[in-house]
């Protein structure tokens, strides 16, 4: 058998590190939580976005969280920007930054909003691009993709139950009726689903590990499908597994947003923005499920464009997108 060659992610990482070797010091540091394709693809895209700055002399270093301890505090403090990808990287960098008298700006990618609030408490010059999608965007997509369905059901868990009131308010503002049931643990998921599905014509899957995880995801999709209720999912894998529609951001979309923020900051055009959800997103549609449930639905590109247009219209005068 022929030996496996380097992956494109490893090659991208090598290119970035080669730039560091030639310059001796990198102004922008990217710390990834682990050695996984998603993290390296996001890092490569962020690095590519800033590659033309300073006549191509700006350098970017990518390191795994496990190597962060090898960087001395002084070296970390001299960075013009640190970007973290994933919760573990954010936790490690922000913990190290607490000991610095003048910590560098830190931009945290793919961190849940509630977790970021904990990690960034009492921190200076810290921002984030949150993991997942804003609730308003999810409900907007349901309206656009399934205009004849106004009864939205969902099951919330221990970490997502705090979203219940916000979900109700956002649904009411869109003339949707929301039925949200709380399951205290994985054991109660399917009883809660039975209650919800009886009064719903679309099921909103919320990313709560106690509700949807490796052991429950397939059964959640099958239970909803058997009831004739389409699922709005939160990942590409859920769409492939049987959700009718999905809303998510890819690694390259996270990297693009991080790179754009980095370009402005490193070019001296401003400070870090306020924490925000991803600006760029992807809509997935499972055409086989649509046919099986006899549901007519627009294609992915048309839905994504309609959703982007709706958000542009909803922007307030200050340019902040409605959440």
What's this, in brief?
This protein is of the alpha/beta class and 323 residues long.
Question: How would you describe the overall organization of this protein?
Answer:
Residues 1-25 and 317-323 have low confidence and may be disordered. The chain starts with 7 loop residues before the first helix and ends in a 9-residue tail after the last helix. Helix 1 (8-23) packs across helix 2 and helix 6 (135-145) crosses helix 13 (300-314). The protein is built from 13 helices and eleven strands. The strands form two sheets. It has a six-stranded mixed beta sheet with strand order 7-6-8-9-10-11, with helices on both faces. Strands 2-1-3-4-5 form a five-stranded parallel beta sheet, with helices on both faces. Helices cover 42% and strands 16% of the residues.
């Amino acid at each position: 058998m022929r030996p496996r060659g380097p992956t494109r992610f490893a090659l991208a990482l090598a290119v970035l590190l080669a730039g560091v070797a030639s310059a001796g010091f990198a102004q922008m540091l990217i710390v990834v939580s682990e050695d996984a394709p998603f993290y390296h693809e996001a890092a490569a895209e962020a690095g590519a976005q800033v590659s033309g700055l300073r006549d191509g002399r700006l350098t970017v270093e990518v390191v795994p969280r496990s190597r962060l301890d090898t960087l001395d505090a002084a070296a970390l403090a001299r960075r013009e920007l640190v970007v973290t990808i994933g919760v573990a990287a954010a936790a490690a960098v922000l913990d190290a930054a607490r000991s610095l008298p003048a910590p560098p700006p830190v931009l945290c990618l793919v961190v849940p909003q509630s977790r970021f609030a904990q990690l960034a408490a009492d921190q200076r010059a810290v921002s984030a691009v949150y993991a997942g999608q804003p609730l308003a965007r999810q409900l907007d997509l349901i309206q656009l993709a399934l205009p004849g369905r106004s009864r939205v059901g969902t099951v919330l868990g221990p970490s997502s139950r705090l979203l219940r009131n916000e979900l109700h308010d956002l649904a009411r503002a869109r003339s949707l009726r929301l039925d949200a049931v709380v399951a205290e643990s994985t054991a109660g998921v399917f009883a809660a689903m039975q209650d919800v599905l009886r009064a719903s014509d679309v099921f909103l899957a919320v990313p709560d590990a106690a509700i949807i995880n490796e052991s429950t995801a397939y059964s959640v999709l099958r239970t909803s499908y058997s009831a004739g209720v389409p699922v709005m999912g939160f990942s590409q894998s859920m769409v492939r597994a049987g959700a009718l529609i999905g809303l998510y951001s890819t690694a390259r979309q996270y990297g693009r947003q991080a790179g754009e923020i980095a370009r402005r900051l490193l070019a001296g055009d401003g400070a870090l923005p306020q924490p925000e959800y991803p600006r760029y997103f992807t809509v997935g549609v499972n055409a086989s499920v649509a046919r099986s449930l006899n549901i007519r639905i627009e294609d992915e590109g048309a839905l994504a464009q309609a959703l982007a247009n709706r958000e542009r219209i909803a922007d307030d005068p200050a340019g902040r997108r409605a959440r």
